[in-house]
């Protein structure tokens, strides 16, 4: 089967950073679906893994986690899906990725694809939807008020993939006031279109901008990018006893900034359930099917902003480079082999 892989970690401008390769078609384990991949999206995670982790030995490492496609085979213990079903998922970081014609994924972290979206439109959502949902409703618990705080959330990095779906989930499922950061006119317009009540500039000090809104100190902060750089501003802006969440990997992050206000700090890793085979692993599949229902009901929209065809090394390199430039808006999707 066709796939895109690499052997050694490194920069995207290397000639061997990503290569078109041929690999054997994989065989499903008991809980696995073998999916014929129709479309994938590229996440910042893909670029981080490519820079840090190699294949080991003389093998190939295949990236990619977001995927949409059709089930072609099922393992002996599979009960929820059958060949021909259209599915979407974000996979597991401990397995080979979805940048391949055929891909194995555990059925428990798979949901049905939204019927109202094309393959490319759907591919933009799984990883970011899981990340945003788990952070908002499992970690930050935004349905539980913080005493004395404004019923508001500050989303740092609102225009990227996670921010784009987080804003929509908040507007669809809560009455929380959404303050999103974006620094360029096109990204500011984007987050407003998605439903942000207020937009502020993360290139300027955040706390004074939040205070100037006149709504009070927000109960929650969701830091999606550059958390280390924005930690002091977030700690100043958030309400006492608020809840702060982050998903990136900041160097030198000062958690003590949040102690004076007794702010709880929450990390989200959407792969935790799959990697550790937690008893509630199947919640991710349920979550994705619920998101699909919301999409089909018109309550959520795709966050894809660019589609590249086909799925090959050249296009993946271009997508990685754009994400690493920090200028991406929404999600970049690749479709078809």
Q: Can you describe this structure?
A:
Helix 3 crosses helix 4, helix 3 (126-139) packs across helix 9 and helix 6 (206-212) packs parallel to helix 7 (227-237). This protein is α/β, with parallel strands linked by helices and 337 residues long. It has 2 domains: 2-128 and 271-335, Medium-chain alcohol dehydrogenases, catalytic domain (Quinone Oxidoreductase, Chain A, domain 1, Alpha-Beta Complex); 145-268, NAD(P)-binding Rossmann-like Domain (Rossmann fold, 3-Layer(aba) Sandwich), CATH 3.40.50.720. The strands form 3 sheets. Strands 3, 5, 6, 7, 8, 15 and 16 form a 7-stranded mixed beta sheet that branches. It has a 6-stranded parallel beta sheet with strand order 11-10-9-12-13-14, sandwiched between helices. Strand 12 (218-223), helix 7 and strand 13 form a beta-alpha-beta unit. The model has no long low-confidence stretch (mean pLDDT 96). It has helices spanning 44-52, 119-123, 126-139, 161-173, 185-194, 206-212, 227-237, 272-275, 283-296, 313-324; strands spanning 2-6, 19-22, 32-42, 61-62, 67-74, 86-89, 102-106, 110-112, 150-156, 177-181, 198-200, 218-223, 243-246, 264-267, 304-308, 331-335. The protein has 10 helices and 16 strands. Pfam families: ADH_N, ADH_zinc_N_2. Keywords: Metal-binding, NADP, Oxidoreductase, Zinc. GO terms for molecular function: oxidoreductase activity; zinc ion binding.
